Amino acid sequence: MAPPARTLLTVLPLCSALLSLPACSGGGGALSRSEALTAGDFLLTGLNLPEGAVWELNRPIRLEFNHPVDPGSIGLQSIRIEPVSAAVQGRPVTGSFQIEPGSRGRVVVFRPSCPTSEALDDGGLLHGGHRYRVAVPVAGAFGSAVLRDTAGHSLVRGDERGFRTPVAPAEPLFVDEDPAPPQVTGVIWPTGLNLFSDPQPFLTILFDQAVDGRVSNLNRERLDVLYSEESVSSGAPPRFTARLPGSLELAANCGEAGAEVRFRISGILPVDRYLRVELGSGFRDIAGQTNVAGWVSAPHQAPLLSEVYGSALLGWSDDQEAVDEFQEHFLDARHLDLDAALAWPPAEHRDGALHASFEF
After folding, report:
1. According to a count of CB atoms within 10 Å of the terminal CB, is the N or C end of the chain lower?
2. Is the C-alpha dihedral spanning 320, 323, 324, 326 positive or negative?
3. Which neighbouring-strand residues pair with 202?
4. End-to-end Cα, the chain, rounded Å
């Protein structure tokens, strides 16, 4: 079966490998005017990838330079990471670049995107012993973009190295950058109720390391969000027996900051209820290490309607019934998606109603 379509670069929270990187963290250390005049040639001085290495699918590639690198020159044309084996020809390597914090702008790190399919065949690198190469072209190389330092000097000494991906099960597919099991480092709770008039559909769960993003691991049997039967205002101890409607999705993985899992909320959050995140035992990190004990978050109170609407609800109390609605009076086209690809001409708004714009 053909591998699923892939976005060329997944970039949360790192900077894009295809776009310029003016906001990359750790990019300080620009050369002053006097330093630029005496800095000498711009050189690649270190590459952590030995020739012929077996390179795990999530291992970062680290390139060190003698001058601070211009973030706007970084990309997959100036740092070329390409397939060599015939079986992976035409499969672009995907991932993200970052200027390493604390390196004074002199170290660039490439992190391959991690696979999430059950066959592990949709990541930046494909396992199975396939050969790849890293090439950093220099000034004068025909048809190649070239790295620049922050003073505008083009790179005059680069490098080229070949490597291959591991073959399972004899070789580990992933490097375990954290020997401990995955742990939740925080939960970003919604500040609203996901009302139609003010949607906020995500609850975000932060992990200390990359996680196994396959459905066999990232599912609601191992990671779930529940709400309490009892209302907050009742003062009764909360019992979490009801699942919050929604679904899990991997928002960021294999980055410096670990992983972000989003819980996409379906519908409106239950008002005046407690919410809780539950992580079951057996949840895996990217290298397959599992947590033995489960984890639950402290109860979190969903906002009250009076908190969401504030002074707009003067004279109204939270125990009264309320509705949320999205109104369309068909007086204008403000809610019409004018960029939608339609097989037929779009409808017309006229006389408080929708009318066909052609005879049928």
Report:
1. C
2. negative
3. 264
4. 42
